[in-house]
Design brief:
By secondary structure, this protein is an alpha/beta fold. The chain is 42% helix and 18% strand. The chain contains 5 helices and 9 strands.
Length: 206
């Protein structure tokens, strides 16, 4: 007599279900790990440790129209594009807004940074009114070589901006060499930003 087909054990029958659950849970686990990294960076007192996939890559191909009505010595202040950041010189891009209190706190340090290093600083006025942006620069000073705008915030998304303010060091090839999340402090200026600029300048001379 031939034997009929053997029935699978309960463990074998449950295996496909476990595999399906594994595929469903894997993205959730990965998301949880990334969220934990973000939470740690935000609560550890050093938001600049937030990860960025753009480090070492070209700055996103974006256009920043000029801040309407902004003048310097009677002449309109230009906006800028990513192409302006790839002309052989190290530069800085700073995202800011008139409604951003930390932007007010860091602004004197941007002016000091410009005077100290001579590096061109490109400002991006984020989701702001032109009049408010002009009033901010008129009150606190204008350290920027050019001032672009990001009215709807789409360019900030391309740059991976988390919130205002954020600062990027761009090497002479237009690549993002360093990203600072949150307001610049005296300590971060000395221990992070200035060294990042110096490293980018040294690399450009090789």
């Amino acid at each position: 007599m031939t034997e009929g087909p053997r029935s699978e054990s309960p463990e074998a029958q449950a295996a496909p279900g476990r595999r399906r659950r594994g595929w469903v849970l894997a993205p959730l686990i990965i998301f949880g790990i990334i969220a934990a990294l973000f939470a740690f960076a935000l609560t550890s007192g050093d938001p600049s440790k937030l990860p960025s996939a753009l480090i070492g890559r070209p700055a996103p191909k974006t256009e920043f129209p000029p801040l309407e009505g902004l003048l310097e010595s009677g002449q309109p202040v230009a906006g800028f594009s990513a192409a302006d950041l790839a002309k052989g010189e190290v530069s800085i891009v700073n995202f800011w807004a008139s409604w951003c209190v930390p932007c007010i706190e860091e602004h004197p340090l941007l002016i000091a940074l410009r005077e100290r290093t001579g590096v061109a600083i490109y400002g991006v006025n984020y989701k702001d009114q032109a009049e408010a942006g002009r009033r901010f620069l008129g009150r606190y000073g204008n350290p920027f070589t050019a001032v672009g705008t990001d009215r709807n915030g789409r360019n900030a998304i391309e740059w991976g901006v988390y919130g205002m303010p954020e600062t990027f060091v761009i090497n002479g090839r237009g690549e993002i060499a360093y990203k600072h999340v949150g307001p610049i402090s005296k300590q971060s200026l000395e221990t992070q930003l200035v060294p990042a600029i110096a490293a980018a300048q040294a690399a450009a001379q090789k």
